[in-house]
Amino acid sequence: MGPIYEKTATSPVNIAVIKYWGKRDSVLILPTNSSLSVTLSQENLQSKTTIRASPDFKKDRLWLNGVEEADVTKNKRLQNCLRETRRLRKEYEKKLCEEVGAENTIPLSEYNVHICSENNFPTAAGLASSASGFACLVYTLAQLYELPVSDTELSKIARQGSGSACRSLFGGFVAWEMGSQDDGSDSQAIQVAPKDHWPELEALICVVSDAKKGTSSTEGMQNTVATSPLIQHRIKHVVPERMKSMTEAILKRDFRKFAEITMRDSNQFHAVCLDTFPPIFYLNDVSRAIIRVITEYNSSNESGELKAAYTFDAGPNAVIYAPRENIPEIINIIAKYFPGDIDNGNEYFTDPYHLFSGNQVGKQPLPRGFNEQIIPVFAPGSVKQILHTKVGNGPQTLTGKADSLLDEQGWPK
Ligand code: DP6
């Protein structure tokens, strides 16, 4: 067997605190506003991808969470990412040819690829996986092709897989600058601050049960841009100012400002969804009850400080950002009002950072001054799972043989 050209890498999930919602070009995926997100730790949530290129492969193939995609040529967004990375590889090969000669240049851009990708979190949890998935695809291809380009350059390709994916090319705090060029050459992600800039900031994800499948982000945002007058106000007058204030809040580690903008921006995103005609509903009763408890938690404490910030994407799950010192209290409040289902006892909250001894989650008293009547206790299982996570790093390359998702012959293990 000849040499093997293969790379494996992992990529993180990101959750926006200033939401991307609306495209000005739906093929190149150019947004109508800039956005800003926090990259979450890969300990809890990540996509992992192995890609091998070989002259022996008959066609490009993709396996996602163990299932092969029937016809990858029909997956336009995947094709865009493959075409763009191959184009850069081709340019690089031309340069290599001149420098080291054709006999020393491997024409990887001409080989078909086998792509195998998995998420370490259940897709059923309803957590967006397209961002980490496309970031991982593009990052792994860039590693395989040894592309001499920056992560910001790669973010412009990942963006063409799924808009929010461009922000998963970096760890820490990440802005997606909307850009103004028609060809998308300045619509890119940049790091605002690295992971270690604000280590006290942590996140909780409340996985909320959802019986029906909601409107996809792609379709939802098209309808918003086409029908909502309110989105125009958001794009022109709200987001530009918020991007500046949020960047400042992050650089100064000002949680009050960070939290207020985060909650206001989530609220406005869901308001433009309601202003879409016909309206789009992503929040359900449980989501709204979580907003009420976090609001009560913030307003009832004597310090007058904001202690937590909620944000919701295109679904009912809540993400709560808070300083580390408040996290146990928040978990306790959520577990009290939204107890786990007995059948799901072990999954409900795994306490990865060992905050609780014994079975104390949800059993501790509410904070002083907290109005217990603010919402009723919900039926067990209304919140399926509470995930505790931190701010995390960008994509990582894995080098161990055991890390590969493909076997010796290049097929899924
Ligand atoms: C609500 O990135 O999933 O999560 O570009 O069509 O693939 P496409 O959309 P996608 O939209 C994410 C929307 C959001 C907000 C955000 O992540 O900024």
UniProtKB/TrEMBL annotation:
Its EC number is 4.1.1.33. It comes from the Eukaryota. Keywords: ATP-binding, Lipid biosynthesis, Lipid metabolism, Lyase, Nucleotide-binding, Steroid biosynthesis, Steroid metabolism, Sterol biosynthesis, Sterol metabolism. One of its GO terms (molecular function) is diphosphomevalonate decarboxylase activity. Residues 12-188 form the Diphosphomevalonate decarboxylase-like N-terminal domain. One of its GO terms (biological process) is isopentenyl diphosphate biosynthetic process, mevalonate pathway. GO terms for cellular component: cytosol. Pathway: Isoprenoid biosynthesis; isopentenyl diphosphate biosynthesis via mevalonate pathway; isopentenyl diphosphate from (R)-mevalonate: step 3/3. It is an enzyme of class 4 (lyase). Belongs to the diphosphomevalonate decarboxylase family. This is Diphosphomevalonate decarboxylase.
